Amino acid sequence: MDETLKRIYNAFDPSPLHKGQQALYVDLDEVRGHSGIVSHLKKKILLTNGPSCQVLTGHRGSGKSTELWQLRQALETPTNGADRMFVVQVQADDELDRNDIDFPDVLIAMIRQIAGQLRERAGIELKPGYFKDRWQRLKELAFSEVSLDEMELEVGMAKITSTIRSSPESRRKIREALEPDTDNWLSAANDIIGEAVLKLNEKGCRGLVVVVDDLDKMITREIKDTGMLTTERLFIHRSAQLTAFKCHVIYTLPIELAYSHHDANIRRVYGGHLPVVPMTKIETPPPENKAFTPGIKKFREIISARLTSVGAGDDVLFQSGKVRDDLIKLTGGQPTELMNFIREALVTDGLPITSQGVKRCRFELMRSYRRQLRADHWLLIEEARRTGQIERTEGNEKAFRQLLDSRALLLYRNDEEWYGVNPAIDQLQPPASRPAGQP
Question: What sign has the CA pseudo-torsion 42, 116, 64, 59?
Fold first, then answer.
């Protein structure tokens, strides 16, 4: 296989940036509407005397995880004499089943990662403490062969996490056992967190920050016999528990929940202002829909940074500058989609990417959206095409949230808040007006 192709393909890994990849980071704040996400989250943590709980939202692929990595850098390596914090990142996708997440699962994953990351990165060993008593209540649920007295806290939590993730039946039983005892599990968790904070203080850290990422990716579905959605159960009905940890916590929140009738309640419970990572502005709002050069230039910078990291130039990757910019426009300002489209075009086209490679990316996405869009979706899509705004009603609430979740509608905040239609479906029409043979 062509080694150049392989190097370039891997340079466009859509995973969030991590430690050691700072050279690949491009600040998009200017073309996102000067939202100052990292600064806002950091200041709330540093200005609060006690624990704080915040949420961060935005479309999947908008760059939330990358911004959270920047926040970690800012808190762990502060400048100008600011307090240093210890940040524990919990990737929910690695710990939990996104099809079915509830508070006990989040609690166990948090404690496992706190114990594990403090041991690995700070040399701090946390004792099981009050969890020894809680463990006894789970012994009959496939854990009878393991004693917490004989193991590290992290290992015990890892066993429960693994079972919760892999076995729906065991997950149900564990939740049933934990539910009546939730307050005691929270008390045990806060005992552990208190011990962690004291030991971090001894090492020069002012406090502990836990970032629970990927919860915005949890599947939204109706819970049988309740009429409640899974996202509502976790973030609204379990909010008193999510906000009860005795440290600073940040959760990523599904965007369709943030832009629902729960908005005021979310702001009240999770610290007021709701930070949103919007899409990068690639074109102006309707009805003009003109190319927005500053946003396109920022995406060119992202591409160049990735290519530079493997010793290649734009002329190696793209047949022409027009092909590059056409692919950028197809993303609608979604950084992760930029990576995905380039990779898909490389698999299809090889080097360099041609206009045909971009067309294939568009065609496949059009087919995917065609399968999922319904008549009530099209009313909102057409409204967004004309005005960039959505008149929300009780009758269209469900369809609106679905369009945000699927990214058929993309949120921008560069001027006033507005919605754009995903460029991948911009050429689609409702079935009644679609010419025969159109995908």
Answer: negative
